[in-house]
Design goal:
18% helix; alpha+beta; disordered N terminus; 6 helices; 20 strands; 359 residues; Penicillin V Acylase, Chain A
């Protein structure tokens, strides 16, 4: 593809990420130790060109640079991988490699800051949109990523664009958040298994202390002077759980729902649970705009939701057009010989409807 055409696609991607401000990620573990990562991909401005991508071992790519230039970091795939991308197959938002390492990108405006692009460092410069591809191509563990991060310079393709941060999870269930602030990469152990957007991860963890009163189940009855207060129904222990779509509120809501949801016994049940939990974060189209100002009539601002069984290397997803689950079974892919390929997430943009049986 010609560089000018690539750069025009990147400009569209920059606009996408600048508005993808409602993505929510969770991580679950079943009683049989299956690890499942899941997240929503939200953007309300327009329909994204969403696709799934299969990348073989040995596939090489080159990072793109600002000002319509090529010649950034070159890297080839030690590991085959699969994932969901936007606009351009190299721009994977969430994916997993055959070693069981997962990486995902989340919007992180106003709080992150990359190093300014330096022409002298062009051969180690890596566009933030391609960090997920770089991680999945080259590494099997979190420690390997941490050891290599200072060998590259992560940059904005468009210097005016905002930053992103990343969730990285390995097959053991260990998870870290990578945030670049003042040009310095910072890794934070993510034991809670939740990620949204700004502010920074440590701020979100501190903010959970504001909700120390929340608990699963019910509250009361409580004596209130001469009268007794009783809950109207079940779930009153969660009174005060924030329900709006700001990143802090989604972080709190996701943390409590995933923490107190009943642990499932196996992979398939945990995948189903991940989608059920993330249903609470679907953003109806239009609600992020003033009345009458929505620029689109898409079915939802949550354009797709993905859940990945890292233990068994299986990716599931559904989209705003079709809630039927699609599955990518990575153990059935010969990554040594498969062709590099990408395909739209939806073959047809409508719900799968099955007529019920009537005797």
């Amino acid at each position: 593809m010609q560089t000018t055409k690539i750069f025009s696609i990147i400009a569209a991607c920059v606009a996408i990420i600048q508005n993808a401000n409602a993505c929510t990620g969770i991580t679950l573990q079943s009683t049989d130790k299956t690890i499942v990562t899941a997240r929503t991909m939200d953007w309300s401005g327009a329909e994204i060109n969403n696709m799934y991508v299969i990348v073989p071992r040995g596939y090489s790519q080159e990072s793109l640079l600002p000002d319509n230039k090529s010649g950034g970091l070159e890297f080839s795939a030690l590991y085959g991988y699969a994932g969901l991308a936007v606009e351009q197959p190299e721009f994977i938002i969430d994916g997993t490699n055959e070693a069981g390492l997962s990486a995902a990108l989340f919007y992180f405006p106003n709080y992150g800051e990359y190093e300014p692009y330096n022409e002298a460092s062009r051969d180690i410069s890596l566009a933030d949109f391609q960090v997920v591809s770089w991680i999945l191509s080259r590494f099997a563990t979190i420690d390997q990523v941490k050891s290599a991060i200072n060998d590259v310079r992560i940059i904005n393709i468009d210097p005016s664009a905002s930053t992103v941060h990343w969730r990285i999870t390995d097959v053991t269930g260990r998870q870290v958040v990578l945030e670049i602030v003042n040009g310095v990469p910072n890794f934070y152990e993510n034991e809670i298994g939740v990620l949204t957007n700004s502010p920074g991860f440590q701020w979100h963890m501190t903010n959970l202390d504001n909700y120390v009163n929340l608990k699963p189940g019910g509250a009361g009855p409580t004596n209130f002077g001469p009268i007794e207060l009783r809950a109207f129904g079940s779930g009153s222990g969660f009174l005060g759980l924030p329900g709006d779509f700001t990143p802090p509120s989604r972080f709190v809501r996701a943390a409590f729902l995933k923490t107190y949801a009943q642990q499932q016994k196996n992979a398939s049940d945990t995948i189903a649970q991940a989608f059920h939990i993330l249903n609470n974060f679907d953003v109806p189209s239009g609600v992020q705009f003033a009345p009458g100002k929505s620029p689109t009539d898409m079915p939802a601002a949550t354009q797709w939701t993905i859940a990945t069984d890292l233990t068994n290397r299986t990716i599931y997803y559904h989209t705003m057009y079709n809630r039927a689950l699609r599955r990518i079974e990575m153990d059935k892919i010969d990554f040594a010989n498969v062709e590099f390929q990408y395909h739209p997430l939806d073959e047809t943009k409508r719900e799968t409807i099955i007529n019920v049986k009537i005797d």
